[in-house]
Amino acid sequence: MSLDKITTILGDAEAENLLNHKAKVSREQLNLPGSDFVDRIFALSDRPTPVLRSLQSIFSHGRLADTGYVSILPVDQGIEHSAAASFAPNPIYFDPENIVKLAIDGGCNAVASTLGVLGIVARKYAHKIPFILKFNHNELLTYPNKFDQVMFASIEQARDMGAVAVGATIYFGSDESTRQIVEVSEAFNIAHEMGMATILWCYLRNSAFKTGGVDYHTAADLTGQANHLGVTIEADIIKQKLPECNGAYNALNEGGASYGKTHKRVYSDLSSDHPIDLARLQVINCYMGRAGLINSGGASGENDLAQAVKTAVINKRAGGMGLISGRKAFQKPMDVGVELLNAIQDVYLNEEVTVA
């Protein structure tokens, strides 16, 4: 996809705002994605040698092979958002084989899904595209609904099906987060010992994060700290929602409240209101990019192609490692989903879309 095409999709004003922005924190301070990322970053770490091989298998697959960027198809919404609600727009994805086919036809680096989805087709596909087993989930069948990530699979099951990586979610800020941190940290350690890479969905969950008419679950300062906790338990890649606001710590400390800690220079020196600076704050909190930041694509809507391209541009220019987009791709006919995934990848393949 040419830069002119990307500009057309974004619109002239949006393209000008995103493609020509100069970031607050210099790119020179970041560890940026590249074809040598495993050699340059992870080969120096405490990760066992088989983990390096697993990471490289992800970086070497699909249309983004050997660029250091990744495009991952995640489909765990059958649990996280209920199967019928997720797959009613395109019922073929009740069949796990079609999920894997979409990832392959869409040129993805890997497919991330549940024990059941990947396990039922493992012998046919585990050697054709890297598998990422998501081992914990929040189910929506308990009444009333609650928000707690619980273990659905073991790390041994991931290894036995041929997965090269495992994924998990932690709801930072929730009442259950302390237990989840311990569970996931222990599971990630086992995964590394078994030669698999680790990916953490670093999500926030607390009703108190909605205050003053603003939802701070996507605030750059809060999500950035969640990322920092994630890399602390040795997540190799962090999945995070694209930031939409900032200043959560200040808002949550109004009226004499005491929550967390921040510093005025977080907002004056490390970020601004620009979406690329907000996303860069997330990258900064991933050890200055030593752990890759992949942003999620979000829910499906009316302008999915434009929104996906915009998110990819923000992530790439912020110094991120790629996108993990599910509902925008699978809640459509497969050929349209493939087109959307390819459009995301085209942003990362376009050398004129540079890191800000």
From TrEMBL:
Xref: SMART domains: DeoC
Cross-referenced InterPro entries: Aldolase_TIM, DeoC/FbaB/LacD_aldolase, DeoC/FbaB_aldolase, FbaB-like
Pfam families membership: DeoC
Residue ranges of coiled coil: none
Gene Ontology BP annotations: glycolytic process
Domain of life from the UniProt record: Bacteria
CDD domains: DhnA (cd00958)
GO MF annotation, one: fructose-bisphosphate aldolase activity
Keyword hit for Lyase: yes
EC number: 4.1.2.13
Keywords: Lyase, Schiff base
Family of this protein: Belongs to the DeoC/FbaB aldolase family. FbaB subfamily.
NCBIfam families recorded: PRK09250.1-4
This protein's name: fructose-bisphosphate aldolase
Lineage, top ranks: Bacteria, Pseudomonadati, Planctomycetota, Candidatus Brocadiia, Candidatus Brocadiales
Gene (name only): fbp
